[in-house]
Amino acid sequence: MSDGTTSATGKVYLVGAGPGDPGLITLRGVECLRAADVVLYDYLANSQLLRHCAPGTECICLGQHSRANMWSQASINAALVRYARQGCQVVRLKGGDPIVFGRLAEELSALREARIPYEIVPGITAALAVGSLTEVPLTQRDEASALAIVTGQEDPNKPDSLDYATLARFPGTLAVYMGVTTAAHWTAELMSAGKSPDTPCLVVRCCSWPQQRTIRCRLDEVVEQLEPRHKFPPPVLVLIGAVVAQAPETGWFASRPFMGMRILVTRPAKQMDGLADLLRVQGADVLEQPAIRIQPPPSWDDVDRQIDRLGDYDWVVWSSANGVEMFLNRLLQRGQDMRRLGKARLAVIGPGTAAALQRFGLRADLSPHEFRAEALADALQSQVTGRRVLLVRASRGREILCERLSGAGALVEQVVAYVSCDVTELDPSVRDAYEDGVVDWVTVTSSAIARSLHSLLGNRLHHSKIASLSPVSSATLRELGYEPTVEASIYTMAGLVAAVADYLALQNRQ
């Protein structure tokens, strides 16, 4: 990271991770994560943020609140100094904003004493996020002229305590952090100091996460709503004030179609984000379990031979985005460029494959309206008679495209540009989710994925609804004994998400 320092000492970046949604971190925070050698992160910082880190970055969780594995503040301070003295770029990733109940002063004191350079990167604190996500106007000209951020957990050794008389008269909204276990105390103190028992309150758990839950109540009902504690455990924030009454019963955030649903995405790791992001923006709690792994062929010899002969072909046909990327990246690695394609026209199976071509500056000459091999073969048949066709493909898959084109009189040659392998080990988080019985949907985007999931999940797959991308994937699922709940009518990731959304909307109307 370019930080202007010239000594061997590293630098510490105290970064606010935001309230939980991985999309709510700042751009500067992402820059710091990308350049980090070491990341020390709180359990309230979404682990999805660690995807911004470079391969090989050491990422250390500082434990979960009130658990035996929780790091002490002294241990955290010592680790920041130790790693920086080793010359590392260190990110201390904190939930919310570093300067709001984040014990930042103690870490800064340790860094200053050790003469370690540092930078503080702001984040969105929970109170501000709660206001936006529940549509509570934290300040409002008629009802609230100010906002007070209040701790529900004071240091017992501190001589001065909160002035509840002042807080009870505060001309605005109170936001109480960390107040679950002490709710009986602070609610009683506020009411004793004159705060009306019927003051509107909003209790919000897991702000901005798919598991976000809210409870509307009066001030004198907060304790009852938080007991027993295990039903509404931390992290919890309580908004207190007249403005709470202005929020709708269900705000935009909680109204998203997949809110609170746990959906398993099973695409290869490098293709995971597109579908996962579409689901997350609609409120889903996404679990990621690649069912297949994409890797280079054991030898590039066959691919290299076909690259050398590209000028001989009239058509080059790709049946997947993976094939495009593997084949054309190999061409570039050999010091060549797209001029090797010469006169060849280019055909692809659908928009995802066409988009992969565009990333190399190429435009497909042909893409069928229906995104499947049969449709691609039908579209090509009248144009390939007597023509030389190169079909770029995976190590496994259906032969329908080759058979149809050959049957139409094309001179077809095939080359395997990548190997598709089954993943044989289930991620522990997915195993735990099934043991808890909380995987609502599984997405299946190819026949290879369907077969691998059958091996990975077995009977557990019957316990979730299944969203299938295409008739081909659905047929394979049925062969294996699983009936898809929905099948996309448009065979794209957006089409798959739309199919699930349409199903849920229909269920809600019934």
Based on CA atoms alone, the radius of gyration comes out at 28 Å
Query: What fraction strand?
Result: 15-25%
Question: Low-confidence spans: pLDDT under 50, at least 5 residues?
Answer: 1-6
Number of helices: 17
User: Sheet with the most strands?
Assistant: 5 strands, parallel
Q: Output mean pLDDT.
A: 93
Give a topology summary:
Layout: E1 11-16, H1 27-35, E2 38-41, E3 58-61, H2 73-85, E4 89-94, H3 104-113, E5 118-121, H4 126-134, E6 146-151, H5 164-168, E7 172-177, H6 183-192, E8 200-205, E9 213-218, H7 222-226, E10 236-240, E11 262-265, H8 272-280, E12 285-288, E13 292-295, H9 301-308, E14 315-318, H10 321-333, E15 345-348, H11 351-358, H12 373-381, E16 388-394, H13 400-407, E17 411-422, H14 428-435, E18 441-444, H15 447-457, E19 465-468, H16 471-479, E20 486-487, H17 493-509
Parallel strand pairs: 1-4, 1-5, 2-3, 2-4, 6-7, 11-12, 11-18, 14-15, 14-16, 16-17, 18-19, 19-20
Antiparallel strand pairs: 7-10, 8-9, 8-10, 13-17
